[in-house]
Amino acid sequence: MLQNNIYKYLLFFLVFVTISSCSNIIHDNQKTKETKLIKLSTNMGDITIELFQDKAPETVANFLKYTKEGKLNGTIFHRVIPNFMIQGGGHLPDMSQIDTFDPIINESENNISNNKGTIAMARTSSPNSATSQFFINLRDNEFLDRANSADGYGYCVFGQVTEGMEVVQQIGDVVTGNNAGHSDVPIENIIINEVTLIN
Q: Can you give the residue range of the structural domain that contains 12?
């Protein structure tokens, strides 16, 4: 009888230690998971964006590289289409293009939808051609998702606006026209003064 009780206590102790260890591992994982937040400081206000580092690692790393090297500072939102999206990150106020790094792979297989307020990479007709340009969706644009796209690739979402969506909407309502062979260009420059990593 005494031997049985000893086995029971020993078993209880082992279970307790195992549960405690697992709890510590989960807690440590939660502590080490870092959320990347960036701020677009524009001449119309600030926009804060959470980057989905775990869902689009190469895309986020690429965006952070442009951010840390200051390449997006002074660029403009050069393409604005009401009730669709605002696009920037590639042109200066005189519509000249910035120098870019090599194109990245399209991580649209993460299946994050191009919903209102999400940020995605702009590209050419080639699926893996994105460099510095991005767009913020002004509405749910599911037709841009990989699952619904005509080319089978779609556009990779890599973040979500967390603050300043009203600024995004205001930019989406500005008057546009043609400039240097480009259409839908804001008449008054919408300048991204600085892009900074908050944390």
A: 1-33
